[in-house]
Amino acid sequence: MDYTWSWDVVFSSLPVLAQGAWMTIRLTCIAVGLGILIGTFLGMGRVSSVKIIFALSSSYVHFIRGTPLLVQLFFIYYALPIVLGRHVPPFAAAIVAMSLNSAAYVAEIVRAGIQSIDRGQMEAARSLGMTYQQAMLYIIIPQTFKRIVPPLGNEFIAMLKDSSLVSTIALEELVRKGQIIYGRTYKSFEVWTAVALFFLLMTLPITALVNYTERRMKAGD
Amino acid sequence: MIKAVNLQKDFGSLRVLKGITTEIKQGEAVCIIGPSGSGKSTFLRCLNLLEQPTAGQIFIEGVEVTNHKLIDVNQVRVEVGMVFQRFNLFPHMTALQNITLAPMKVRGLSLEEAEERAYQLLDKVGLRDKADEYPDNLSGGQQQRIAIARALAMRPKAMLFDEPTSALDPEMIKEVLDVMKDLVNEGMTTVVVTHEMGFAREAADRVLFIDDGLIIEEGAPDQVFSHPQSDRTKSFLSKIL
Asked: For chain A, what are the domain ranges?
């Protein structure tokens, strides 16, 4: 095979790749942050005894988890403007698609967290005259937070990798930057190795952090 | 003070309570005994509406609390304290916070008032020095005494105990029973589901023997333990005494 190795391409592209990685991190942080906010309420809806709240939050979760993020992204970027009558900027489309997607996964994490709390906690709170809302706010949710840190970390990692899908709507995150450099240099091996290493550089510390908190919590439980 | 009339409770197709009628008077201490699965805990849990009775009525101080058009369930629970077999302390809060939370959030006490009340109760259960400990660092007996203090902090008119010593190591049972005896001696209206026959004999004004969802026999402890009338009571007592 006639291929000229050129790792110089990678080194000269490091600033561009770093820009892309920064965009990837920003997108993921904002999306997962919003996802946690929306997902916490959805998760509470998933354990609600009010039928309509349960049905609505469950439908949402099933709908989002049952369709690909790529399709959701295309829907918001290409299909929604037809209804809205105006263009949706790529960054906004990416944030909306990713956070709505993340919210569904966070909802299931929160639901599992709430259900993992011993039934006696709710009973004790209610027996003291607290309302369901008070019991949730002061007793159940604070205990849930501690338990859902590791799965939320995993969700963050998953979303960080899935954010590469927004390269398809020309948002210049890490993978898109890789495509641009490749298009200029045709050094596919070098470029995609570098992109992969950038992703590892971001995910490995988070994985380590998740494992660390998990171990600490086991010791604390 | 607490009156149950023909109380029934179904779990699915299983009828756990088959019509219980009894009245607990102001200041009375009642012990409920009976085999596992007889419905005695379910009966107790119905009294503060942790379980919704399927049929029948409960009156607290003459007010029918099973009629939800008339009554706010939370108001009922405020007046009737409950202590659980597995303590159910809030693990993310200190002993003191466990006791002060509900008086502040439900009764509207200030932090100072709630803490003053909490320290008095910690003295009462002999655990003032454990105020800032988390439940995980306390023994089972200590946790249960904190749980009693937590319930008392709401100044309930009656206290319900659901097998309060069943999850305890034997050497810790006495410290919990002693706190309960003090309460009874102070005239607190008390209903205890228990396997501690010594406690029932010593502290109870009345003993109810429940089997298969019905009160089979009731009376003064001496009468029930020494001269049981029903064969089922005799057979139960012969197995445990």
From this structure: 7-219
Helices (DSSP H) in chain A: which residue ranges? 8-46, 51-65, 69-74, 80-84, 90-116, 119-127, 132-135, 141-162, 174-185, 188-220
- Considering only CB atoms, which residues of chain A are within 8 Å of chain B? 118, 120-121, 123-131, 134, 138-139, 142-143, 146
Q: What pLDDT is recorded for position B136?
A: 94
Give the integer Cα–Cα distance in Å for B139 and B83.
Answer: 16
Q: Which amino acid is at B178?
A: D
- Statement: residue A221 has pLDDT above 90: no
Q: Furthest-apart CA pair in chain A: how many Å? A: 78
Residue B29, beta-bridge partner list = B190
Residue contact A124–B89, C-beta within 8 A: yes
Mean pLDDT of A161-180: 95
In angstroms, the CA A140 to CA A124 distance is 11
The pLDDT tens digits for A10-26 are 899 999 999 999 999 99
Calpha distance A106→A104 (Å, rounded): 5
Which two three-digit tokens encode residue B147? 């749980």
- Look at residue A220 and tell me whether its pLDDT is greater than 70: no
Pick one of 1.10.3720.10, 3.30.428.10, 1.20.1260.10, 3.40.50.10260 as the CATH number of A7-219.
Answer: 1.10.3720.10
Q: What is the average pLDDT score of chain B? A: 93
Cα–Cα distances in Å, from B232 out to A165, B4, B210, B241? Answer: 71, 23, 10, 14
Nearest alpha-carbon partner for A129 in B69, B239, B101:
B101
State the Cα angle at B206 between B201 and B208, rounded to 5°: 95
Pairing of strands B206-211, B29-33: parallel
Nearest-angstrom CA–CA distance, B227 and A114 = 50
SS3 B80: strand
What are residue B212's phi and psi, to 5 degrees?
55, 40
Q: Give me the total of CB pairs closer than 8 Å, taking one residue from chain A and one from chain B.
A: 60
Residues 6+ apart with CB under 8 A from A204: none
CA–CA min distance B91, chain A (Å):
8
Of the candidates B41, B101, B48, B104, which has an alpha carbon nearest to the alpha carbon of residue B79? Answer: B48
